[in-house]
Design the sequence.
């Protein structure tokens, strides 16, 4: 499949990379770009040769948010009818881990897109912000919810109410990003992390992601039961038998993904 707004690559074994590639507009997240992104992610999610996905942008911008030109004149009904934000939800259904490799601006929907990924590797030039208040609106793709759950209420309020931006170093300190790397290395760091995860037991990786995400959705007792069920279910896989046998034999396991 050919895309106009993104580039799709296989930079390392087991890794699928999607690069948002609208440099002139700082990767404003137009409808066509988001449709291509979701379609590329879903294709990779179905590909057995890929175990972990990376989304990145260009060095000066991961993404500058939803496209303001597209929505400036819209009515609420038009926004709903064209599923302006609802299409973003498709990211939640990707079963394989998704890493955001963020450099430059991650503003508005760009920050929310990174937050919707499972992990974030940032370049030291990254800037995270929710500037929607300057446009007379609020975040619409998860910013208020995911930020509050990640960095807490006080700082989220400041970001959402008063356009407080976080540098890469602050984002790391507040637990928004996993790691910060120099701008000429952050993508390699993300790809290396993705390749390491892709080399692990695939079914366990998928259930691990699902269980961690459940922690943000449910009560502790329901979450513990959910985790325990996934743990027991993994004893039905060949990879559990292989992983434990390999440990006892003092050798490297060979995963089958079954
Ligand atoms: N939508 C549409 N176009 C955008 C855009 C966006 N989000 N961000 C940048 N662009 C376009 C500009 O309109 C401009 O296009 P033209 O050359 O055709 O005029 C081009 O990209 C370059 O932008 P600037 O001239 O502004 O470049 P700059 O270096 O001065 O500033 C920037 C760069 C800081 C990213 C600035 O463009 C900016 O603040 N962008 C908007 C950020 C924003 O408000 N994001 C939130 C959007 S709303 C949202 O995301 C809702 C949601 O929750 C889903």
Sequence:
């Amino acid at each position: 499949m050919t895309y106009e707004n993104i580039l799709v690559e296989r930079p390392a074994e087991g890794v699928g990379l999607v690069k948002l590639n609208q440099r002139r507009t700082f990767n404003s997240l137009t409808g066509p770009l988001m449709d291509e992104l979701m379609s590329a992610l879903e294709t990779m999610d179905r590909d057995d040769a890929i175990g972990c996905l990376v989304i990145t942008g260009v060095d000066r911008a991961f993404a500058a948010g939803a496209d303001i030109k597209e929505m400036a004149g819209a009515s609420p009904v038009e926004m709903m009818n064209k599923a302006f934000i609802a299409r973003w939800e498709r990211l939640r259904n990707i079963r394989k881990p998704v890493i955001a490799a963020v450099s430059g601006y991650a503003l508005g929907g760009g920050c929310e897109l990174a937050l919707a990924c499972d992990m974030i590797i940032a370049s030291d030039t990254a800037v995270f912000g929710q500037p929607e208040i300057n446009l007379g609106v609020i975040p619409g793709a998860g910013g208020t919810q995911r930020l509050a759950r990640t960095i807490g209420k006080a700082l989220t309020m400041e970001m959402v109410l008063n356009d407080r931006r976080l540098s890469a170093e602050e984002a790391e300190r507040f637990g928004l990003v996993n790691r910060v790397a120099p701008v000429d290395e952050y993508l390699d760091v993300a790809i290396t992390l993705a390749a390491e995860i892709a080399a692990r037991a695939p079914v366990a990786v998928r259930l691990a992601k699902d269980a961690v995400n459940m922690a943000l959705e449910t009560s502790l007792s329901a979450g513990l039961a959910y985790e325990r069920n996934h743990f027991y279910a993994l004893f039905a896989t060949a990879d559990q038998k292989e992983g434990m046998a390999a440990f006892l034999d003092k050798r490297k396991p060979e995963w089958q993904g079954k």
In short: Strands lie at 6-12, 15-20, 52-56, 61-63, 98-102, 105-107, 119-123, 127-129, 166-167, 179-181. The first helix runs from residue 31 to 45. The two ends are 29 Å apart (CA to CA).
